[in-house]
Structure to design on (572 residues):
């Protein structure tokens, strides 16, 4: 009946409702089709919604649930309610929301009730210049923090710990490469000694020796693994006194006459000896017999017109002529050296010590000299320049017991007595390490640990003896180091290495003792565990989420504050 009243009555009702609803005018019925529930929702405060839900619209809600004809039924219901209630717009919104909620639940859409991320319609949002600026700043800030967090995630930290050494291996490998600057390879011997009583002399297994030239380069063919072979000695010669009955055939040259004698005689074969040397005492009758044999050969050659061996056989006592032997760098007794025109010619003689062997050697020297007369000068000069430089590179490895001990390089010869005064064991440690060398892939993984980079403190260091009767000794404390390595897609494995703490000092020897370059070692009962720790992936994801959420929240608070300030200033 009220719907059929005149427009004037409608105008009166509109005024009446405005007065009863606190000054808010209701729109005419035909404009309801253009007003959406979302627009009504934006105009209502939460307190008003709670009030209406408990009072004015409680009775009407249940009645309107029976309508099934969509929006037209709701509009009609709202119009009826609007004539009876003062808060008509609020009632309509609540009725519309209750009606839609019931329909959604009845149609299987109840899952939407737990939606934590409900969307706000676009027409209810407002953009500002300050918000845009803060959004750009927030994105830049989040991006920078993300890069820093990613860098921290990819980076690793080195952690170390100490534990008792649980290595159950019985043998320890020692790798070495040492250059002896004043020691010939055939005099260099490697010995191994430990506290258990092991005493291995002149170890040759897994050890190589390379003779060096005067520039320090290895002599590839003739200088590799040069060892002293067994040589023959004459034992049928009469005593020295009997040989001297018809005169001295191998005279002893003093130091003051040595240079003059070499200049006056083109070919001289010299025996540098020491009276206390047992090998020199054994050689002395043979040497006298050689000189006598050369004289006989020259006499027969002169009478028959054959070729003579124009070589003088002499000897030098290095005890009485110390300076001369020192200038000639005589390291071992006896040293048999051939001179031509006052200079050393070729390397020292190291073959059989018999009269026949000596004669054959001298004949080859003389005949070679005659043959060289037809050679090109350059070829002749290369032959004359061939000398033996007293340098040797000793390299390889030895297996020792895992107990304190040492290995040392000593000058020793089974066919000579060494001259302690001239034994110079100055050396260069090219490399010294403990343990089995790692494969290349493990070396790359372990190389990132700083402990691995510092485990060879003696490498490429030179130790020079400044005086006679002294040598450098090296003391090494060996610490087992367990490196825990692995990749992101591979299991962690343990690699055992060794760190070294070294100390070197000069040791002095007695006048008759032969020096030795000694490398002593002792194993620590403690082991170091080195591992690389990185962040877990879930820590990284949590940190990234915290960066995004925290930045968004803080910037949102700043934006709200600035918006209030700017809006308040405009109202003023």
């Amino acid at each position: 009946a009220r719907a059929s009243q005149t427009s004037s009555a409608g105008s009166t009702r509109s005024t009446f409702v405005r007065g009863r609803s606190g000054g808010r005018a209701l729109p005419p019925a035909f404009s309801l089709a253009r007003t959406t529930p979302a627009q009504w929702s934006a105009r209502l405060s939460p307190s008003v919604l709670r009030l209406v839900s408990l009072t004015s619209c409680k009775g009407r809600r249940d009645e309107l649930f029976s309508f099934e004809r969509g929006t037209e039924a709701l509009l009609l219901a709202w119009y009826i309610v609007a004539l009876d209630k003062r808060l008509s717009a609020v009632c309509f919104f609540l009725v519309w929301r209750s009606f839609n909620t019931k329909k959604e639940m009845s149609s299987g859409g109840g899952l939407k009730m737990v939606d934590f991320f409900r969307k706000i319609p676009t027409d209810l949002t407002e953009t500002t210049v300050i918000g845009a600026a803060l959004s750009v700043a927030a994105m830049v800030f989040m991006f920078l923090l993300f890069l820093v967090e990613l860098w921290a995630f990819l980076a690793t930290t080195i952690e170390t710990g100490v534990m008792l050494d649980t290595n159950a291996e019985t043998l320890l490998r020692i790798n070495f490469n040492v250059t002896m600057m004043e020691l010939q390879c055939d005099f260099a011997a490697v010995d191994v000694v430990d506290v258990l009583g092991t005493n291995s002399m002149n170890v040759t297994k897994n050890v190589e020796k390379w003779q060096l030239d005067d520039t320090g380069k290895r002599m590839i063919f003739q200088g590799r693994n040069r060892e002293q072979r067994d040589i023959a000695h004459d034992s049928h010669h009469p005593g020295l006194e009997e040989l001297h009955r018809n005169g001295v055939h191998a005279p002893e040259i003093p130091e003051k006459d040595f240079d003059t004698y070499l200049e006056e005689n083109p070919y001289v074969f010299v025996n540098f000896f020491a009276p206390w040397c047992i090998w020199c005492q054994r050689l002395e009758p043979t040497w006298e017999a050689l000189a006598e044999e050369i004289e006989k050969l020259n006499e027969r050659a002169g009478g028959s017109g054959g070729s003579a061996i124009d070589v003088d056989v002499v000897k030098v006592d290095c005890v009485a002529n110390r300076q001369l032997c020192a200038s000639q760098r005589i390291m071992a007794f006896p040293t048999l050296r051939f001179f031509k025109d006052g200079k050393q010619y070729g390397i020292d003689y190291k073959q059989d010590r018999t009269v026949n062997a000596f004669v054959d050697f001298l004949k080859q020297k003389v005949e070679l000299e005659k043959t060289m007369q037809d050679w090109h000068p350059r070829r002749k000069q290369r032959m004359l320049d061939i000398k033996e430089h007293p340098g040797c590179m000793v390299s390889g490895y030895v297996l020792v017991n895992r107990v304190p001990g040492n290995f040392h390089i000593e000058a020793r010869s089974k066919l000579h007595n060494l001259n302690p005064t001239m034994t110079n064991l100055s050396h260069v440690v090219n490399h010294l390490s403990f343990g089995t060398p790692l494969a290349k892939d493990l070396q790359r993984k372990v190389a990132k640990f700083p402990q691995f980079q510092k485990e060879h403190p003696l490498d490429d260091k030179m130790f020079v003896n400044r005086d006679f009767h002294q040598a450098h000794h090296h003391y090494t404390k060996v610490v087992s180091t367990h490196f825990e390595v692995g990749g992101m897609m591979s299991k962690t494995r343990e690699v055992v290495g060794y760190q070294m703490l070294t100390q070197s000092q000069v040791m002095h020897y007695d006048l008759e003792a032969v020096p030795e370059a000694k490398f002593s070692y002792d194993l620590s009962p403690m082991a170091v565990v080195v591992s690389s720790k990185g962040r877990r992936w879930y820590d990284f994801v949590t940190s990234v989420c915290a960066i995004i959420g925290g930045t968004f929240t803080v910037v949102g608070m700043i934006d709200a504050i600035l918006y209030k300030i700017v809006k308040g200033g405009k109202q003023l």
Q: What stands out?
A: Residues 537-571 form the longest helix (35 residues). The chain is about 35% helix and 25% strand.
